[in-house]
Amino acid sequence: MRDTSRPLPFARAAGGVFDLTLDGLVWSRRTFWMAALLGLPVVFGVLYRMVLASRLPPQLQPFDLYGTIVVFYYLRNLVPLAALFYASALVADEVEAKTLTYLLTRPVTRGAILVGKFAAYLVTVLCVTLPAVVLTFFIVLTGGGSHSVSAAVPDLFRDLAVLAAGLLVYGALFTLLGVALRRPILPGLLFLFVWELLANLPGYLPRLTVTAYLRSLVTHRPAEEGIGELFGQVLPASLCLEMLAGMTVVFLGAAIWIFSTREYVFDQ
Amino acid sequence: MTRSRGVVLGAASLLTVGAGLALGAIYLSPARAAVGPLPAVGLSLPAESRFVVGIDVRRFVASPLYRRYSDKMPVRPQAFAELQERTGLDPERDIDQVVIAGQGPTRSDQGVVLVLGRFDRYKLSRAIETEKRGVTWKDYQGTTVYLFGEAANRRSGAAAFLDDHTIVLGGRPLVESVIASHASGEGNLRSNAKVVALLEQVRPGSTFWMVGDQSLMDQMPRSVPAPGAPMSGGPAPMQSLQLPGLKSMIVTGDLDPVMAVEATGEAADVTAAKNLADVVRGFVALAALQAGQKPELKELASSISVSTEANQVRVNARVPYEVLDALQPKPRNRTEGAEPEAQK
Lengths: 268, 344
Prior knowledge:
Chain A has 12 helices and no strands. Chain A is mainly alpha-helical. The longest helix of chain A is centred in the middle third of the chain and has 35 residues, at 146-180. Chain A is globular, with a radius of gyration of 20 Å. Chain B is of the alpha+beta class. Chain B has 2 domains: 34-192, no CATH class; 196-224 and 242-327, no CATH class. In chain B, helix 10 (270-289) packs antiparallel against helix 11 (296-302) and helix 11 crosses helix 12 (321-327). The chains are: A mainly alpha, B alpha+beta. The interface between A and B is large, with 43 and 43 residues.
C-alpha cells in the first residue's frame, strides 16, 4: 500500500509524465510540420539522384553534398529550431493553456515532471531527426557507389551522435528558457540567429556559443563565404564534449530548480 | 502499446536497419578505411612517409584558376594531344586525383605518387613497353612493374597498375612496397599514427592539401633573411630571423570562387606559436609597405590573415583572381626592349 502522503517515486512519476507527454508530442501538428522540414533533405536526395547528379559541377561529390546538408541544414538551422519549438513549449504551453495546475496537483515532484517531459521531447525529436539523416545519407551517397558509402560510414555515426548531442544541449537550454520566460520563442530565435553568430568571429568569442562546439565535432567543413571562412575555428574534441555535457547539466539543473521553486500565477 | 510508442519503435527500427546497412557496407568493403581526404587506396602508401600531398584534379581542372591560366600555356594542348594519342589518356578528363607521399626534401628518391582515374590499361601498358627506351618489366606479387633506367645502373624508377583505376609511380623499392601493402593490407600508412592523425584534420573537399609531420618540418630551413637584409652574402646574426620549429603542418586550399589557402602549423608551445605568427605578420606588413611601387601588393597583403590558437598558427589567404592577374609580370613590349640597344 503506497503512502499517499508522499509523492510517487521519482522514476515512476517521470515515466508517467513521459508517456503522457510523448502522446501529446508525437501526435501533434508541430511534429507533422517539423517532420516535413526535417525530412526535406530526403526528398532533395531523391531529386538529386534522379535529376541533379548528372547536371551539377564535377567538384560537388555526393559526400560533399551530404556534408553540406548535415552542417548547414541540420546542425546550424533545423536542430536548434526543433529544440526551440519543442523544448521551450514543454512548460510554456501548459502555462499558456492553464493546464499546468492539473499536473502540479498530482502527487509527483516538479523535478520528475520536468525530467519526464524533457525525456519525451528528446525521444520525439530523435525519432524525427535521426531516421531522416540516415535516409538522406543512403540516398545521396549510393550515387557514388557502394565504396563511397562504406567510406563515409564513420562520418554517419559521428553525425548522428553530434546531432543527438545538439538536440540534447539545445533542448536543455530552451527548456530553461521555457520555464523562466512566459514567451521564450523570440529570445530563443535571437539567441540562435544573433548570438550564435559569434561562432564565426576570431579569438575566444566562439567559445561563448553552443554551435561552435557542435560544428567542431563534425568532420564536414563545407566551403563558406565571409568571416565564417576567415575565422572559423575547430575546437579540440575533448573540450567540445566537456562543454556540451557541462552546459546540458547546468541548463537542465537550472530549469529543474526554477520549475521547482517558481510559483505560476495564471491570468484570470 | 500506444500509437506513440509504435512510432518510436518504428523510428528506432529504421535507425537500427540503417546502422546495420552501414556496418555491412564497411564489412563488405574493408579496403575502405580511408582517412580524411585520402582515398582508400592511398592507405597503401609507405608507413615511413613524412608528408602526404593530394590534388583533386577534377576540381582543379574545373577551377577558375585552371580556366584562366591553362590557355596561356601554349605547350599544353599539344602535349596533352600527343599523350592522348599515344596512351589514350586525357589528363583533364581521365585523372581524378593525385596523391604524393615522401620523406622530405632531402630524400627526393623516396617519393611515391599515386594517380587515380580512368585508364585504358592496355593502351597505356603498350605505350610504356614500346615507346620508351630502357624499359624493362617484371612480375612482383602478381603485378607487372615497369622499371625505367634499370639497365643504365641507376636507381631505377618504376610504375605499376595497382588496379584498373590506380597507377603507382616512384622509386622501385617504394613502388614494390606499395604493391605489397596494397595486396596484404599491412605495413601501410595506417600504421603511421602521426600522419594519420594529421590527415584526419584535413578539410574534406579541398582542391589540394598537404600534411607533414615533425621529421619533415625539421628538414625545413630554420632561419629566413630579415626584412631589409641583403639576399646574398654570409649569414649575419642580425640579418636573419630564427623561425621556431614546427611539430606539424597542414595546408588546404580551394580554387573556387577565389584562391583560398589555409596553413596551420603546430609549434612547440604558445610562445613559439606567437613568435612565428609575428614573423609571418612582419612579412605581410613588409609586402603592404611595397604598395607604393606595386599597389596590388597591398591587396595581396590585406587578403592574408594570421591568427594563433594555443600552440597553433593559422595563416589564411583568400586571394581574388583579379589580384593574381595584377601580380602577373606584364608582357614586355618589344619596342621598349629594343630601345636601349638602339641608344647604344
